[in-house]
Amino acid sequence: MELRHQVIVIGGGPAGLNAAKYAANAGCNVALLDSAPRLGGQYWRHTGIESDDQSRHHNFDQGSLLMDAIIANPRITIYPNTTIWSASVINGEVVLRYKDGAFITSRLILATGAYDRSLPFPGWDIPGVMTAGAAQSLLKGSGVIAGKRIVVAGSGPFLLPVAAGLSSHGGKVVGLIEAAGKFAWLPEILSLLQNPAKISEGLGYLLTLRKAKVEMRFKQAVISAHADSDGLLESITVANIDAEFHITSTYSINCDVAAIGWGFTPDTSMAGALGLKEEVAADGSVVVAVDENQRASSAHSELHIFAAGEITGIGGSALSLAEGAIAGLAAADSRTNLRDLKKIRRKARRFALTLQRVYPIALGWKSWLTPETIICRCEEVTHAAIQSAFTELDADDARSAKLMTRCGMGMCQGRICSRNVADLLDSPDADRIKGVYRPIISPITLGELAQDGLL
Amino acid sequence: MITFTFNGVELTAREGQSVAAALIAHNERITRLTRAAGKPRGIFCGIGVCFDCLIIIDGQPNQRSCITEVKAGMVVAVQDGA
Fold first, then answer.
1. How many A×B Cβ pairs under 8 Å?
2. Which stretch of A277-281, A394-398, A432-436 has the lowest confidence by average pLDDT?
3. Which fold has domain A2-115+265-336?
4. pLDDT exceeds 90 at position A445
5. Where exactly does CATH 3.50.50.60 map onto chain A?
6. Would the CB atoms of B17 and A144 count as touching at under 8 Å?
7. Tens digit of each residue's pLDDT (9 = 90 or more) over A263-295
8. Residue of A35, A116, A379 lying closest to B45 (CB–CB)
9. Is residue A73 less than 8 Å (CB to CB) from chain B?
10. Is A163 exposed, middle or buried (0-12, 13-18, 19+ CB in 10 A)?
């Protein structure tokens, strides 16, 4: 089946929702695609459970208003449960394949979002060690507390809503471990005060954590995890770390869940498959390069392809909403409110960069690794294997390391390990961008391909 | 409440929950064993990105338990080797 739409938006999070809304309000017929069953993305994730309390979500009112408006808009067609596995340009149009056929358009807005950034350490493959986002999605999506004794760790403002959400819904959070210093925000105070809404949201989480007596520890990190005889998480080793993330001393905590997040990694797979220009951002992540109107750079200049939200640089929901709105307007050739939106975007972008300076991720995490530490979880490739490919086989770029060790060749296609492998090999920017190139965006079975007549 | 089975044992779940969440609610944390080292794995990213929580659902292997909603009568089993 071939489906044509004037404008296609991929991703139903804040950026994609606003892009669809603004493009539709400017008169376009819009298709909004998402791989999940419900709109909202990771930020406004909500349960499919009837009569469930949705108060687990930050700013959910804003999100539900926006989602209701999208659902009610006759110019927007929503395609949930729709996973695109291939994106290409054929005869001057974008062709997006999913399991039942293809979507075709000449105006595309990518808002594919981000996922938790993970750093490897000994034992991070033990069941019970998960990302902060996983603990959050279990709670927000299914109303389940991830464990009985939970440590929330890593770095960045996202740890606060995760720990606060868990403890205010009856979870026992035995520690919130932040790598940055307690007063790391102080040098940025003037810049942070420009965004009072975010500051008051943060203070609200701190109040919740205080009430629940959650202990917050700073300049510390989880550096190894240990399993019991059943292979499940039993304890973690926590280290005091310096500014470079080198270990100065250690102690241990018993817990059955360690929910760890080191900020986020943009998922630019679809942009890469379409050959859009990508670059390496200040935080080391690969992002889609865009112009003032969120337009991406394509060799096919007749196409109008835009990118909005986390894939253009990690920046949070306010920035995503602004970028989505601008992309939606630009895709519809409208300029209504464009100046105001650009002002909001500028402010949100400044705030995002400030937060990146408060919560830097230093490369000293490499010193936490042992030779046996798994780096590629899918293919079970160890640190020693990557090191020996590097030193003995001269695999000094990510591609050679991949070919020799299989790291990044598993089902996740390097989404979890590629950034870490690039750091381990001190890869230049060009290698980092190649490392996230995935011509097949998500795995598809041969049976599904055959059904589509492509085999 | 609905019921499904995990490794032959009947468990309850709330409709709308993910398979991974329904299992964790019963403190079942292992979804698969790795194909090289045979090590246990469970939910990791929670949003369908990492493919660590693969599991067998109604005879189909390689299903992501974190983004698959549990249904009444589902037959779920640990995947040995993925």
1. 119
2. A394-398
3. FAD/NAD(P)-binding domain (3.50.50)
4. no
5. 2-115+265-336, 118-262
6. yes
7. 999 999 999 999 999 999 999 999 999 999 999
8. A116
9. no
10. buried
Judged by a CB distance cut-off of 8 A, whether residue B34 touches chain A is: yes
Angstroms from B49 CA to nearest CA on chain A = 6
Enter the CATH code of domain A369-432: 1.10.10.1100
Q: Which amino acid is located at A455 in the chain?
A: L
Work out the minimum CA distance from B78 to partner chain A, whole angstroms: 13
A106 CA: distance to closest CA in chain B (Å): 28
Question: What value, to the nearest 5°, has the Cα angle with vertex B34 and ends B12 and A366?
Answer: 110
**Domain ranges in chain A with CATH number 1.10.10.1100:** 369-432
d(CA A33, CA A26): 19
Q: Mean pLDDT across chain A, nearest whole number?
A: 94
User: B46 vs A136: CB contact, 8 Å cut-off?
Assistant: yes
By Cβ distance, the residue of B14, B41, B67 closest to A127 is B41
pLDDT tops 70 at residue A51:
no
Residue A415 contacts B, CB cutoff 8 Å: yes
Confidence of residue A84 (pLDDT cuts 50, 70, 90): very high
Amino acid at site A276: L
What's the ipTM? 0.98
- The architecture of the domain spanning A118-262 is 3-Layer(bba) Sandwich (3.50)
Nearest CA in chain B to A378: B52
Q: What is the pLDDT of residue A297?
A: 97
Contact A232 B30 (CB under 8 A): yes
